Amino acid sequence: MEYSIKQVSERLQLPTSTLRYYDKEGLMPLLKRTDYGTRQYSELDVCWLELVCCLKNSGMPLDDIKRFMMLCLEGSSTCEQRKEVLEKHKANILRQMEVLSRSLATINFKLDHYNEIGIFHIDG
């Protein structure tokens, strides 16, 4: 089945401008077009975009995503390299989660303090 850019945009909750940008930046090298130049997304393209979104939303820069995608296109000979990329990214995510967890604890501490002293109470 083939999907239009609008259908993919709605399915992935991404603006069409983002989908065009990803294509322009070379993140969709297998994307097919009609004779008129209209993008036609396959199920495989949509799955790839879901992975791109996952990596991007978790902090991987687009250049690194593109390098990862190129490794994927090279086939099974790059499996170990791809695994290393994902393991490194996972470690980065875990570090980010630790930082966010500490930040959340600090904010909760402050909120508890403000609640104790009554800063958030509205006097009638």
TrEMBL record:
Coiled coil: none annotated. CDD domains: HTH_YyaN. Keywords: DNA-binding, Repressor, Transcription, Transcription regulation. The keyword Repressor applies. Pfam families: MerR_1. Residues 1-71 form the HTH merR-type domain. This is MerR family transcriptional regulator. It comes from Paenibacillus xanthanilyticus.
